[in-house]
# Entry
Amino acid sequence: MASSKKYWQSVEELKGSSIVETLSKNEFVEEIPTDEFLGDKETLESSATSRRDFLKYVGFSTAAASLAACEGPVRKSIPYIIKPNDITVGVADWYATSMADGFDFANVLVKTREGRPILIMPNKEANGSTNARTQAAVLSLYDEQLRLKAPRKGTEAISWSTANTEIVAQLQALKESKETVVLITGTLASPSTEKVIADFTAAYPNIKHVAYDAVSASGALDAFEAFYGKRALPNYQFDKAAVIASIGADFLGDWQGGFEKSYSAGRKSENGNMSYHVQFESNYSITGANADKRVVLKPSDQVFALLNLYNAVTGANVPSKATPADATVKEVAAALVKAGSKGVVVTGLNDKNAQLIALAINDALQSIVLDTTATSNVRQGDDTAMAQVVADMKAGKVGGVITYNVDPLYTLANAADFVAGLEKVSLSVALSLQNDATANATTYALPTPHFLESWGDVQAIEGQFGLMQPTIKPLFDTRQFQDVLLQWSGSTATYYDVLKEFWNTTVLAGKSWNQALHDGFFTKKATATVRAKSVNMTSIAAALMSATKPSEFELDLFTSTALGDGKQANNPWLQELPDPLTRAAWDNYLTVSMADANAFGFDNPVQDNGAINGNYANVTVNGVTLKNIPVMVQPGQAKGSVGLALGYGRTHGLKETMQVGVNAYPFLIGGKNIQYGVTIEKAAGSHKFACTQVQKTIAGRHEILKVASLKDVLDTKLDPKHSWNKPTYVTYDHQEVEASTIDLWDDHNREVGHHFNLSIDLTSCTGCGACVVACHAENNVPVVGKHEVRVGRDMHWLRIDRYYSSEVATREEAVASGLSGGDLYEVLENAAENPTVAFQPMMCQHCNHAPCETVCPVAATSHGRQGQNQMAYNRCVGTRYCANNCPYRVRRFNWFNYANNNEFDFNMNNDYGKMVLNPDVVVRSRGVMEKCSMCIQMTQATILTAKKEGRKVAANEFETACTQACATGAMVFGDINNPEDDVAKLKEDKKAFHVLDAVGTKPNVVYQVKVVNTNNA
Amino acid sequence: MSSHYEAPIREPLVLGTKSYHDITEDIARPIEGSANRNWYIAFYISLAAMLWGFGCIFYTVGTGIGVWGLNKNIGWAWDITNFVWWVGIGHAGTLISAVLLLFRQKWRMAINRSAEAMTIFAVFQAGLFPIIHMGRPWNGYWVLPIPNQFGSLWVNFNSPLLWDVFAISTYLSVSLVFWWTGLLPDFAMIRDRAVKPFQKKIYSLLSFGWSGRAKDWQRFEEVSLVLAGLATPLVLSVHTIVSMDFATSINPGWHSTIFPPYFVAGAIFSGFAMVQTLLGIMRKVTNMEDYITRLHVEYMNIVIILTGGIVAVAYASEFFIAWYTGSPYENYTYMSVGAATGPYYWAFWSLIIFNILIPQLLWFKKIRRSFIMSFIISIAINIGMWFERFDIIAIVLSKGHLPSTWWRFEPTFVDVGIFIGTIGFFFVLFLLYARTFPVIAQAEVKTILKSSGAHYKKLRDENNEH
# Structure
């Protein structure tokens, strides 16, 4: 209610006296003596502050104020006030730890700078090796987009203590009502975690633990169990093999964790013990690319070939069918029998019976390649058990679900059933690193730390233990899965205590915990001995035959080199890593054989901007249809088969730019990587691919990438320089001399100091791409995104060129067959229908006579005393002449600002992602050229360390990021002025050659001829 | 310099019954009169194109070279193509004014002023590209050997790009001085006729106080001769050095020893074509038909067919050598079977048609003396010469040594916009020039009026004064 009361200040006002009115009009009761002040000229003139001074003050303060306002954005950094004991600013600390994300397992060393992990490298003492995903995992740590940052109930934030209280109460209730609670985890391979889980299930007997792998090896596990009585995988020691027959097993890729290290150890021509590797496959895998003989077979024929091989090796006569490759199968069988215990057969068919046949062949051969004692734990998922869980959930037989480190909503073919099941359970908890689909569907989403923030242990191979230790304080409000389980079990111990106690009592056998933690690994002799059980092979073969339903099209699902099962799909380094074969980044696609592509009218036309396009296909498998899958015509794909990579098409929680490709998991029905009865139809539209290389073949320029047969290489009577490793010869002074010996220039004086060389063995290089990601991480190489890759602007300092063979093997043969002109080019430029493949890592060749150096007008690129071609970014004005004059085309130009630019919203555009940047390497600005520096920051650090310790740099002490990351030892770096260095010997090896020697660039990167054991020498 | 006798069989160089005063009037008319509608239309179109181009340049400098269509394997395309094209166009001016002066070719007098203006304006356009094609053009001055405090940094004298800097800047400055020297008496003429005080002031400044005394004329003649001597080697040197951007590199197709003479011939070829194009328009627009005659057109066409012939032989030689080496690396040079049948076949055949086939029409006297045909052929050559540079750069870079690096180039709207912008800028300058400068060297033309003017020849014929 408004008040109508009137307030008055004086009696006069109340009375309405006129003086009040007068005064109220006059703001100042007393007159201000302005005239007195201003009118007095003398005072003004005598004043120290003149009008001019006044204006000066005004001017100055305005300028000062505006200058202060113009200050650049402030970035606060907090210095160490008291230096931590273990951190010296500017000096990296390395920690030994282990990676285990359920798909990739590795003993690694982690480089930290000022408390931030910035690089992952293999722990070579622990025989560790890293693939591209392990290398890139350090960036996934800082993935603030996808990581689950705080506990959540539904969509509400919740504290850990409330969550724990609520969940424990519900667990107790479920325990009392004796309802099953399912704990679904990925492959853990962690003995201490298994103990924690055992304690947990002891506290809650109604809990059932199921291991689930998105891409499982369930068939192999079941088969091994049936054969040897232990649910594990054999560890294949391919270095012991003389003959390797692989039927669809991509064992250099992700098959059972990958075996590139032991494989390449068994393929050293210099030792004369190179294995003979035959690959029967439908997709073109990197394993097939490395094989001595690759036989194209569609999946159903692979099954029959496996049975035929079994019959041929063992002399049995189990039912089978003829395949187009039977002649080769017979040859391979003969070779295997000849090799005896040094022969091995592996198959990638995720089917118990097929795996049993392979085990039976190996058993018949008494193969020593399979280690059935020190078995492998890298895949533990049980497809049957998981299928049962989903069925039970859907039937309402499950009271609660706890998931850890799995995303069944994304990876299950029958994800809808899982969702339906989730609605029927009373308790659903996702313990997850990522804010993935499952974490969004469960009641509780509890964040777990990244492995770089965690304690833990891994036993990937029986007896080979790895320790995991935190390398950074958890970035988010996370708790370890094990700690959470301990708390739920009612234990007050922390997981660290449990881990240490477990190791001291069970693993270390009296050895030092501190030493084990320092080393990051501990090796024990595996004790379990297992025996082959007898199995009825005929019934198995019959079951296999009946399960194999040859159809017009068969689908072979695989994991791509870059993304694997898709756990790190939000990692820009991996998205930008091109596929080794198709060299397409940022995509998955249906690989189709050339013959089928012609029938359907699929093609990949090259566009005017250099990129390639593709058609779309709708694919139906078992009633499930995926629409608009881009099609890539793949030379060497088996006719009647199509391939599709898993791990793409993830959407939940991913940055929009990373939501690329199609999700192929709905096709992984029953966990089977082979699906029969596939129907394909061409769909409308055109897909834009982002490939880093579009030319398929080497176009007759075979001196770029030399390939020799093992027979020739071992033949001591042959002079390599005139047979299989022929340099370019020219006539000079009427004599035939090597082109590279003729020079207009004086040589650099190399007598003093180091002279760096890098040797790349094309035989050992599997094309895995680990070096590419390592280079990204070490050198702050920017990610540019799909469109920029598409238009040919990827920034990779190190790339791996891929060359398919053409229908006519060499230019000489083509010319001899009467081809010339355009016809000749066409034959040499197009890939054969079933080509062989060679990989060639290509980076700055650090030419001693570098064409780039002479053409730069401002001398921004010049030669270092140690052999490097150096690039001074600050001096570069960006004419790009150097790139044009580089015959290897390894220079990369900063077309835009790639850091702090919303157009390039990758790790260099957010504060978390920037934590991975290497402080030793500058982030380049736009308009400058960049390229491989031979990791000069690393070589300088090595030199300085030696200097500080008052010694010479030891032999083989120098390393670069790519050589460190290379699992197979294909890349060797060092100082050729030190005769003890391996690279000094490799440079003089009979296999050594320089790419484009005739140009006269005299590179400091030397390649070793690719040796293939074509005729099983 | 002027002789008073000329063989009667020579065709007159000045038509009509011109007196000295008529010439003065004719030349001064465009400057003193007001511009017609056509001039304004042309000017505004050019201005719009120029501003659009400037916008594209600002966009490029502000955002990054990534707004162009270049990629990791093709580091140059339209930028350097346009650069070489414009530099080439700039060649005719100096050739006409310097070399023809030394050879005492009187017919040059009608065209040298505009040819040189074209040279200077074209070199402006050319000079833009090396600057804006840089990733960091704000540091462009680093290519100059200026003593500095950046450390002991100095330019790289091995780099052909640095030679370019010297060659182009020398060429521009000598051409400018030469041009201006020739302009002095003509500016003085305008100054003397000017009635508005502002105009008078400007032209007296521009004419450097020319008084018309005998001493002035003597010095004028001497300086012209000396500058002609200085400029003549530049005609050869500039494009020689531009060609070295390619010839000293190691790319198959660029690394070619015949590039210097071949580029110089190509530059004169394209320069004369552009002179034909411009004068074809100008003689109509400014009513200079009596001064720029069929004879002039024919003479220029003869130079065109000569230099075009040299260029054609160079192409044939490149094609032959690429094949003859038998090296697979030479399969895809811009003159090869690979180029003719590859993805850039259209660029290859454009070059062959516009640059080799069409100019052969000039062997026919009728065509050679036809204004309209000369104009059309000159346009064709302008296009053909652009394709020559595009082919050399883009086709060669698109197929490098390693097949893994084979790529293609597609221009963006910015590439196109900047090129159009330079054409606009060029015409803005040329149109302003045509309204403010004496477009024909009237003082020089007057010296040949009595020997080569049609009227005087006729008088001599009638009076049998031979």
Remarks:
- Chain A has five domains: 93-138, 166-215+381-519, 218-376, 551-691, 702-850+934-1012.
- Chain A has a mean pLDDT of 91.
- Chain A has 34 helices and 42 strands.
